[in-house]
Each structure stands twice: as C-alpha cells, then as structure tokens.
Design a protein that fits this description.
Elements (H helix, E strand, L loop, with lengths): L2 H16 L15 E5 L2 E5 L6 E3 L13 H13 L6 H21 L5
Antiparallel strand pairs: 1-2, 2-3
This protein binds zinc ion (ZN).
The site of zinc ion has 8 residues, from loops.
Length: 112
C-alpha cells in the first residue's frame, strides 16, 4: 500500500467523521459547498458566505504534525465509546492533544 493511497483513504475517513451527514458550513450552516484543492489538500468553499474550510480548520489538529488520521481516530474512538475506549487509543488521544497544544503554541496565532 503506498503513502498516496493511505492519505486518500484517511482523507475520506476524516471527511466522513467531520461531517457524517455531509458538509455543513461552520459559519452559516449552509449545507452545500464547492470542493477544490489547495496545495493538494481538500478545501470546501461555502457558496453562501464564501468561507473556506479545511478538514482541520478550527480543530486542535490545525497545527498538528502528527498524521491526522491518528489524531482523528483516537479522538473519535474516545468520543464514540463512552468509557469503553481502550487504553491504547486513550494514550494516542492524550499524545495528540499534547503535541497539538505544543505546535499550536509554537505557531502562535497563525490561523488556518
Ligand atoms: Zn457559509
């Protein structure tokens, strides 16, 4: 399995996790968007308010250097199985938060 196909699969998963019912604009709630690519990453542009949203914009992963799939899956597992998450996924979750907090501090207020 190549890195490219892995990245593609992760991206689809992340999209599904973030918007299980389909895209919703985080600013105005519009339910449709144009999907295009910026530096190889997917960006959604809301047709109503023109807000551009990436998979990680506004999340604690915006500045994380860990693989996004790891962070998202760890968090998702934790939130989906209340009290039932294994210690392994919990450890990943904590690790992700720490790294994300550190990289966010390093990056200052550079919004994505
Ligand atoms: Zn909008």
């Amino acid at each position: 399995m190549s890195d490219v196909s892995l990245a593609g699969a992760g991206e689809a998963e992340l999209t599904q996790m973030r918007w299980p019912e389909g895209f919703v604009c985080p600013r105005c709630g519009e339910g449709a968007a144009s999907l295009f690519r910026h530096w190889g990453k997917p960006l959604w542009q809301c047709p109503a308010c023109r807000l551009q949203t990436s998979l990680v914009a506004g999340t604690m992963f915006a500045h994380s250097r860990l693989p996004l799939t790891v962070c998202f899956q760890a968090t998702w597992l934790l939130t989906q199985s209340k009290g039932g998450a294994g210690t392994e996924s919990f450890a990943e979750h904590v690790l992700c938060q720490r790294v994300a907090a550190k990289t966010q501090a390093d990056a200052g207020n550079a919004g994505v």
